[in-house]
Amino acid sequence: MTSSSLMANSVVPTYGLYVPVGAAGSGKSMLSRAWPADAVLSLDAFREMVAGDAGDQSATPDAVAVLELVLECRLARRLGCYVDATNAKAADRAKLVAAARRHDVPVTAIRMETSLAECQRRNARRSATRRVPQEIVDGQYRLAASFDHVAEGFGGIVSSHVIAALPACRSASDSPGAIAAEGLTIDSGDRYRL
Fold first, then answer.
1. Which residues, 6 or more positions from 52, have their beta carbon under 8 angstroms from its beta carbon?
2. In angstroms, what is the C-alpha Rg of the chain?
3. 124: number of CA atoms within 13 Å, CB side?
4. Could you count the other beta carbons within 10 Å of the beta carbon of residue 59?
5. Which H helix or E strand runs over 191?
6. CA torsion, points 116, 118, 121, 125, in degrees to nearest 10?
7. Which pTM value belongs to this model?
8. Kind of pairing, strands 191-193 and 40-42?
9. Which residues 6+ apart lie within 8 Å of 122 measured at CB?
10. What's the CA gap between 27 and 175, in Å, rounded?
């Protein structure tokens, strides 16, 4: 099965809630290109909207409130959503799963497959106002690596490599997952395997 046929059968970016789980620098924003622009709910964009600076961490509570409001409205209309945030904390993911359940839409986790070293390398290249402290990236990576999507109520999980192999993402020259995801299958809708 090719990644494109897998996408057609298992991951439909225009419907449901998609939750990437990974550290800063893992490529979540790059993957958002697989979704229509209106479906991408970016925590950075909401920080920019409420505070005039996407890197202003003090604006995070307000940005999250706006993101959650937009998420509820879109899910009520049965519109797809991709939540572009680290989603590394179980409590944050629980809110997203609960929102999907309230609106009876499928919720899928996307496991970001980027190594910690690559996350740190990308993070170091960011501007000073957007750079995340190294110890926070380390912590996000550990939290994301240990989550159990089944126990948390996700309907499925897919590797970031599957999404990154889609044409919308492959066009990016810096794509971390530009490799084809040939042979990847979804096992009972909840686990991926290569």
1. none
2. 16
3. 9
4. 20
5. strand 191-193
6. -120
7. 0.80
8. unpaired
9. 25, 27
10. 8
Residue 187 amino acid letter: D
d(CA 1, CA 182): 7
| Residue 47, both tokens | 């920080």
- Per-residue model confidence as pLDDT tens digits over 95-135: 999 999 999 999 999 999 999 999 999 999 998 888 999 99
β-bridge partners, 42: 84
Q: Where are the alpha helices (DSSP H) in the chain?
A: 3-10, 28-31, 43-51, 60-76, 90-102, 116-124, 134-145, 160-164, 167-170
Hey, which residues does 19 pair with through a beta bridge? 109
Tokens for 25?
């620098």
d(CA 93, CA 149): 10
Report residue 64 as tokens: 């999250």
